[in-house]
Amino acid sequence: VQLVESGGGLVQAGGSLRLSCVASGTGFRIKAMGWDRQAPGKQRELVALETTGGHSTNYAVPVKGRFTMSRGNGTNTINLQMNSLKPEDTAVYYCRARVVINSNNEYVFWGQGTQVTVPS
Question: Mean pLDDT of all residues in the chain?
Answer without folding.
Answer: 94
